[in-house]
Design goal:
The protein has 114 residues and is α+β, with helices and mostly antiparallel strands. Helices cover 33% and strands 27% of the residues. It has 3 helices and 4 strands. The protein starts with a strand and ends in a 5-residue tail after the last helix.
């Protein structure tokens, strides 16, 4: 497989890892607007044939880079991103508990979104 390209499809709420012209993994997320703007990852998925190649970690790293570039925090609800953040505190600052609570509320209010 060639190098992986990561692209942000904000309209679809997906950060996608693309290799050899196909999406091999992605993070589904939404943008929380209140009480403050934040990126909220909900699911990380890597196609079975591409597991174990560091794709999920690359997606998580890029999500935090996008958030830093935009000047917003990440409020992770995705279990993978939560664990990744715990292992990379230099890259992934702790999420504000108020933002996490608001993100969970948003998710409950939009049950069909994810």
């Amino acid at each position: 497989m060639s190098d992986i390209e990561i692209r942000d499809d904000r309209a679809e709420g997906r950060l996608e890892a693309v290799g050899d012209g196909e999406v091999v993994g992605h993070i589904e997320y939404f943008v929380l607007e209140s009480p403050a703007r934040a990126l909220v990852p909900v699911h990380t998925i890597v196609e079975p044939a591409h597991e174990g190649k560091g794709i999920a970690g690359s997606l998580a790293r890029e999500l935090y880079a996008v958030a830093e570039h935009e000047g917003v925090p990440v409020a992770p609800l995705c279990p993978y991103v939560v664990k990744w953040a715990e292992r990379h505190p230099e890259t992934a600052p702790l999420a504000d508990p108020e933002l996490l609570a608001a993100a969970k509320d948003w998710l409950r209010a939009h049950p069909g979104r994810f």
